[in-house]
Amino acid sequence: MRPFKFIKAEDVDSAVSDISTNEQAKFIAGGTNLLDLMKIDVMQPRNIIDITGLGLNKIEETGEGGLRLGALVTNADTAYHEEVHKKYPILSHAILAGASPQLRNKATDGGNLLQRTRCYYFYDTTTPCNKREPGSGCSAINGYNRMHAILGASEKCIAVHPSDMCVALAALGAVVQVEGPEAKRAIPFDNFHRLPGDEPEKDTNLLADEIITSIDLPPEGFAENFAYLKNRDRASYAFALVSVAVGLQMNNEKIEEARIALGGVAHKPWRDKKAEALLQNKAATMENFQKVADEILKEAKGYTYNKFKIELAKRSIVRALMQAAKID
Ligand code: SF4
């Protein structure tokens, strides 16, 4: 690990000021991803700004009837919070499907959004990787790409976002509150993470001098009809090959609204709102679920070792919709 300067921020304003004025600076809270990346020389910040004392560790009701998750609330405290568990069970289930208890006790909600891909080549500094070193090439496209993207990839990068929590937040339609030197702004979850395009080094639309202060959950939590389904190579402490978060608004046998988000398939949690709309005012049947699964995957592209994910994703969508509609 390279030497770095350690700065303790006292409040949000000073944290924003510190990151704006210190070269190659990074915030640290739980440190569950950043420290690993620093130890293996994938990231080399010169300044580390400790934000653990900013007081962003509360879960509060919003005026609109939703919940505000402070950016520094731990993943474990979020998953086991009474209101989250009761009103947004899809989020609790997704968080508890990820990482390990030790990591969930340390990792924060804001940090979860900013974790880096687990592409093997990104972590191997002896190989080319456009995300780690722009312009160097992508080792995964013609390499071992079992865990990689089948949707929204580019010729520069086929990495996937590794989070479970973010898949549920995408389905719920959360909003990320951020603060920068000039202003505060609210970023709809769909616009927070990016597709790789020509700049795979950029994972999100958060600016370098902005800090996440909270994640706001809307009033509707899909507590009656939901599912979080995660397919992975082993039963615990493994990233998703394909995961699916589903929330349904049902009126007797009919679906009034469907939310479907996929993890492990793209550079960001994947939602296809046009495909979701195919289920509006439709009966909860296997046939209708298969149609929407086919639509979501219609432009999917597999690589040498991950083609199986296309069929796996279709079946996972159908299965998760059946669980959410309670018809299995
Ligand atoms: Fe790097 Fe992305 Fe290619 Fe992985 S898929 S090697 S992260 S450029």
Main features:
5-stranded antiparallel beta sheet; 20% strand; alpha+beta; 13 strands; binds iron/sulfur cluster; 328 residues; Enolase-like, domain 1; single chain
Largest beta sheet: strand ordering: 4-5-8-6-7
How many E-type strands? 13
Query: Which regions have little confidence, pLDDT < 50, spanning 5+ residues?
Result: none
Structural class: alpha+beta
CATH homologous superfamily designation of the domain at 226-324:
CO dehydrogenase flavoprotein, C-terminal domain
What is the CATH class of the domain at 226-324?
Alpha Beta
- Please report which band the strand proportion falls in: under 5%, 5-15%, 15-25%, 25-35%, 35-45% or over 45%: 15-25%
Describe the SSE topology:
Elements: E1 5-8, H1 12-21, E2 25-28, H2 34-39, E3 47-50, E4 59-61, E5 67-70, H3 75-80, H4 82-87, H5 89-96, H6 101-106, H7 109-114, H8 120-123, H9 165-172, E6 175-179, E7 184-188, H10 189-192, E8 211-217, E9 226-231, E10 242-251, E11 254-263, E12 270-271, H11 273-277, E13 282-283, H12 286-296, H13 308-325
Parallel strand pairs: 1-3, 2-3
Antiparallel strand pairs: 4-5, 5-8, 6-7, 6-8, 9-10, 10-11, 11-12, 11-13
The chain binds iron/sulfur cluster.
